[in-house]
Amino acid sequence: MVNFAYFTDEQRWAALVRRDSRADGHFYYSVRSSGVYCRPSCAARLALRANVRFHASCAEAEAAGFRPCQRCKPDQPTLAQRHAAVVAEACRLIDSSESEPDLNSLADASGLSRFYFHRVFKAQTGITPKAYAAAQRTKRVQAGLVRETSVTDAIYAAGFNSSGRFYAISPAVLGMTPTAFRAGGSGTSIRFAIGACSLGAILVAATDKGICAILMGDDPDVLARDLQDRFPKAELLGAEASFEQVVARVVGMVEAPQVGLDLPLDVRGTAFQQRVWQALREIPAGSTVSYAELANRVGVPKGARAVAGACAANALAVAIPCHRVVRNDGSISGYRWGVERKQTLLEREAQPLVKGG
Cα(301)–Cα(97) distance, rounded to whole angstroms? Predict the structure, then answer.
């Protein structure tokens, strides 16, 4: 991050000319002819350089006899800080409400127009208020399915005004019916096998819809416990000869990611996660994108952090290639299955695929 506190006055002036918002809070400037002081990003007409002085703080500018600009309000939180506070308060309101607050209520509470609030919320979080509320309701119903005496009680306690509405979306958000989720996956059959590849141990699991997990690690027992913790009462079917062939195909993809995987996937996640994961699958092997670029591709230019969260939630290693996302400067960032594995996968994809004769 640029630290404007160590810039020379001429460098500060250059930032002021650019209206560089990154400099806000690092320094302030005053204008002798008007008697006011401003943020570097202030949209007021540019003053003459000879009339401009720089200050380290609002207090310093005011001690020199200048008053805060009424346009950029340098003595108040920045627009970004105000937006972050508005969104944080809206999230608290959604979290604490028994039923989902409508958009008008949230906008009124924020003091913003309906349209502007919606835009600010999506820019800050990467998702809409409605999607956030739906995700929070899903979390509550998941907890309630364990705690409440009946499935219906859990659904209504989570804020759903219709059990039918929740049953319609439950396969996507729970991965199974609410009853099966409450029973820890009871009645759900999951085939799995653990193999070995050049990157360590690999676990592949699948429902009747397709592969639902590809996990990598150093310890096969840890991978098996992870699967068991996710579905403590599911019927886990291991060591089937036919499924070993599926594992072999997945291992082949890990060894040569360029070939892809032509097996069906059972991809489960929120609507936003699904959008991110689909965008990941559209990145060609041998290519990388930054989190910011990926955020642009899914329609949330300021949602890089939310996109990174969706990448971290991906449970289908390599098949959904979150390893192709790097930092803005091109350097390797964190990876659920280890940075070393990410580096190796990218190096393999950079090599031309040698086809057998």
Answer: 29
Q: Is 15 in contact with 2 (CB distance < 8 Å)?
A: no
- As beta bridge partners, residue 52 has 31
**Alpha carbons 301 and 124: distance in angstroms, whole number:** 10
Residue 72 a catalytic site member: no
Neighbours of 6 (CB within 10 A): 8
Start-to-end C-alpha separation, the chain: 51
**Cβ neighbours of residue 260 closer than 8 Å, sequence gap 6 or more:** 253, 285
Q: When comparing pLDDT for 33 and 6, which is higher? A: 33
Catalytic residue among 69, 72, 91, 322: 322
User: Catalytic: which of 38, 91, 212, 311?
Assistant: 38
Identify whether 197 is a catalytic site residue: no
Q: What crossing angle do the helices spanning 129-147 and 79-96 adopt, rounded to 10°?
A: 40
The predicted-structure confidence for 69-114, as pLDDT tens digits, reads as follows 999 999 988 777 788 888 888 888 887 776 778 889 899 988 889 9
Residue 28 · residue 67 · CB < 8 Å: no
Residue written as tokens 């062939």? 245
Tell me, what amino acid is at 118?
A: H
Is the CB of residue 211 less than 8 Å from the CB of residue 162? no
CA angle (130 as vertex; 128, 136 as ends), nearest 5: 105
